[in-house]
Design a protein that fits this description.
Helices cover about 45% and strands about 20% of the residues. It is an alpha/beta fold. It binds pyridoxal-5'-phosphate. Pyridoxal-5'-phosphate (PLP) binds next to strand 8 and helix 9.
Length: about 220
């Protein structure tokens, strides 16, 4: 069942990426926040290796329960300062959700080895969403690069506009892609955008990492 969901998602990703280019590779991060460790195991058996959680507590618990599996863990949620140490202990392979210069500095202060991360952009300009304003994104990205020694930005992340209007969603992805393009000279190589409801649009707009939850674990 879960394996079929994965096959279905891969087939849809394949179509979308080929519209961009045969060389355009897209990575799937399975977002397991509403799933049990047993379901994660099932998806792992189907071949999925990267999983993401949005709460430090859940990440810690699932890492413990699934200790035996070589899973690549990602963190995608908004991070409170008092949870930074706990998160760093989990050594996630990628933190998708650096949403301010202040948070970046705070994390950097507490880590003693390299941690890869993405700067989150509030591309839909929604008050309920975290992330830096698109207009200040490049400056903040560069300032984090200059001031952080161990926290390394390797790209950006966004959550598409929360609406059924295709044009508005696409616009938020295009805004983010433009920022990504300017940051490629800074070494940005990951553009994390697209979730279950909008990953095909996101890929066509240039995303190379999609975060899929409900479509995989339905
Ligand atoms: C939950 C979540 C996802 C996955 O959402 P689905 O719509 O279930 O695919 C992706 N990214 C973030 C940041 C999330 O919190």
């Amino acid at each position: 069942m879960i394996a079929e969901n994965l096959d279905g998602a891969i087939a849809r990703i394949e179509q979308a990426r080929l519209e961009v280019s045969g060389h355009h590779i897209v990575k799937i991060v399975a977002i397991s926040k509403y799933s049990t460790s047993k379901e994660i195991e099932e998806l792992f058996s189907a071949g999925q290796r990267a999983f993401g959680e949005n709460k430090v507590q859940d990440l810690t618990k699932k890492q413990e329960e699934l200790e035996a599996l070589p899973i690549e863990w990602h963190f995608v949620g908004s991070l409170q300062k008092n949870k930074i140490n706990h998160l760093l202990k989990c050594t996630p392979s990628l933190i998708h959700s650096i949403d301010s210069l202040e948070l970046a500095l705070e994390i950097d202060k507490r880590c003693d080895k390299r941690h890869d991360a993405l700067l989150q952009i509030n591309s839909a300009l929604e008050e309920t969403k975290s992330g830096v304003h698109p207009e200040s994104a490049i400056d903040i990205y560069q300032e984090i690069e200059e001031r952080c020694n161990n926290l390394k930005l390797i790209g950006i992340m966004t959550i598409g506009a929360h609406t059924d209007d295709h044009k508005t969603i696409k616009k938020s992805f295009e805004t983010t892609k433009k920022i990504y393009d300017s940051l490629q000279k800074n070494g940005a190589k990951i553009l994390s955008m697209g979730m279950s409801s909008d990953f095909e649009v996101a890929i066509k707009c240039g995303s190379n990492m999609v975060r899929l939850g409900s479509t995989l674990f339905k």
